[in-house]
Write a structure and sequence with these properties.
The protein is an all-alpha fold and about 190 residues long. It folds into two domains: about 1-50, Orthogonal Bundle (Arc Repressor Mutant, subunit A); about 65-185. Helix content is about 70%, strand content about 0%. The chain has helices at about 10-25, 35-40, 45-50, 55-80, 85-95, 100-110, 125-130, 140-165, 175-185. Helix 1 (about 10-25) crosses helix 2 (about 35-40), helix 4 runs parallel beside helix 7 and helix 8 packs antiparallel against helix 9 (about 175-185).
Length: about 190
């Protein structure tokens, strides 16, 4: 088989993509250098060349997962031509409540990692500033963002189980819950 030519950046991105897919499909035990190399069709040393060691690969994966979640949220908010609307906020909450993202966040936490990009990148702060729309960043706005983030993280991990125990079997309930939560934290005059 002919060797596939990649730049170092392309190779790193492909390795992270494969590791992320393994994590999503099979869990953290599947994210091993040998397994990633096998999936990619390269040698074990080729993976180590880009990350130094298994821990280097995991660190890069942790970082990419957290950056991807932030970039996804910001892109939804920035690309709505109507500005920040209930619809664009609901789309962000839908992504945050996705069980796949919840599993990724849980995996980061279980492995002792901060699930958010480096504080220096100001990911949450930039989202908060965008949501404040020039109205200032008050303690109440911070708490509202915390409430929404924590609720969506809980939704991503436990939503189906909680609804089942409460006897809610309406397929539209997750979307209804997100809309209700947004109306709770964003009064119509805000």
């Amino acid at each position: 088989m002919a060797r596939k030519r990649r730049t170092a950046e392309q190779a790193r991105a492909e390795i992270i993509e494969i590791a992320s897919g393994l994590l999503e499909r099979e869990g953290p035990d599947a994210v091993r250098v040998a397994r990633v190399a096998e999936e990619m069709g390269v040698s074990h040393p080729a993976i180590l060349h880009h990350f130094g060691c298994a821990d280097g690969l995991r660190e890069a994966l942790y970082r990419q997962i957290s950056i991807d979640l932030r970039v996804d949220a910001l892109s939804i908010l920035e690309n709505d031509p109507r500005g920040i609307t209930i619809d664009s906020l609901e789309a962000v909450l839908e992504r945050l409540a996705d069980p796949k993202n919840g599993k990724m966040m849980a995996w980061l936490l279980v492995n002792g990692r901060d699930p958010f990009p480096d504080a220096g990148e100001r990911g949450l702060a930039s989202i908060l500033a965008m949501l404040s729309q020039g109205k200032g960043i008050s303690t109440e706005r911070r708490y509202k963002l915390m409430l929404v983030l924590l609720a969506m993280y809980g939704e991503s991990l436990l939503g189906d189980h909680v609804r089942s125990r409460l006897g809610v079997d309406d397929e539209s309930d997750p979307a209804n819950f997100r809309r209700w939560l947004l109306r709770l934290v964003i009064p119509q005059s805000d």
